[in-house]
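Render this sequence as a predicted structure.
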Amino acid sequence: GNILFVNRTPEGHPADSILGRSIFDFALEKDRKFLGEHIENAARVGHSIAFEIEVRAPWGDEGWFECRVGAVKRDGRIAELTLISQDITARKQAEQSLLQSHEQLEHQVAERTADLKMEIGERKRRETQLQVLQDIRFEMWNMRRKEDLEKVLAALKKGLEELGLTFTECG
């Protein structure tokens, strides 16, 4: 199908550069089959079909268009097809920017979560160390007799086990 009417073009680009040309002239090579299938489908089913397609203007700019192909019927038969399109390049760019921002944010959240998990693990380890030291100090301060030394040693052994250390690793 050839383009018969254009209501507006970008500033500095006359409608003459588009009128009379095939719509396939503007579809990127990779999307021409896609465009043809949608046009054929609209002609076959007789109702409008909407899709988005990447295009190249005659002046070289690439962008995205939202298109709707519809059948025009006369005497109950499809007489012609109408394609109405709208430039959605700015929307597509905004969507891409939003997607990139979302991916960056997800990455930052994952990094920060990993950092926090490490920090929480380190804090728990320090809390365990402090608790072990407090338990040992408690037993030492309460040591009154020679037999109380066994309680100190038991507290020391328990504390080292909680820390995952052996006595020889303590230096």
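Summary. The helical segments are 32-45, 89-141, 148-163. Strands lie at 49-56, 62-74, 77-87.
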